[in-house]
Design a protein that fits this description.
By secondary structure, the chain is an alpha/beta fold. It contains 11 helices and 13 strands. The chain has a 6-stranded mixed β-sheet, sandwiched between helices. It has a 4-stranded parallel β-sheet with strand order 2-1-6-7, sandwiched between helices.
Amino acid sequence: MRDFIITTDSNSDLPADYIKKLGTVIIPQYYSFGDTVYGDELHMQPAEFYERMKNGELPQSQANNPAVIEDKFRNLLDRGLDIIHIAFSSALSGSYNNVCMVANELKEDYPEAKITIIDSLNVSLGETILLLRATGLKEQGYSYDNIVSDLENYKHHINVQFTVDDLFHLQRGGRVSKATALVGSALNLKPFLMVTDAGTLTSDGTVRGRKKSLRNLVERMKNTLEDTLDTTAPVGIVHGNCFEEAKEVAELVRTELGFTNIIINDISPSIGTHAGPGALGIIYYGKEKPTVKEEK
């Protein structure tokens, strides 16, 4: 039986210490300021990235590079490894299709190999939670096919709830109108967004004031947890250069809900391009996400 490896992309926001510990292979996602492209050999620290956004610079996100995907996958296949790749939501980027295209081409050169691309229908640490699930099952001796089957079910339970501090960046991405952004900013409204069962983003109400929005995130999490609660399950908290507030939210999750395995990390720049400075989200295993009617 061939051994296999679980890979993902940099939009997973998998912390560096996890990458080192697990030996995870990461497919880079890209972003740019002007003509300078970052994400592979050239990197920018998240704090600098969000500071530049605060100062008015507008970055652009870009999909992954098929040539880089092929190189990384070939290196694994040449070592006799099968691949399970956990990809950023296909509804939010063309990156999933790029990985599928490369995988299909490589199967012609490596007919004995298995390459499965999981459309996570998730973002950020939602992908990481799936990766940790797969890694744990592999350590328990689960087969390749059983892990793939498990992830296809598990991904529908990964809840992503977040709020942003500045409506302008949502307006740029087409999530709210210019009028809504102007009025919301004037009234200090903080919007909530969620990742739907189809892997898209949808708005989910507003509250007035930053502190209330962060408290409300924890309440939303509480209301969507399963009745049988596993407080050892990983919970992700991601932020756009607002680490102290992320720690405050983590403490609420720890003290009020009892979770002990909390991962805090920066929102990667390729996602932060759309969320902006001050974005903050909670990502966790909960009730299966209901079907959400998308806004027209």
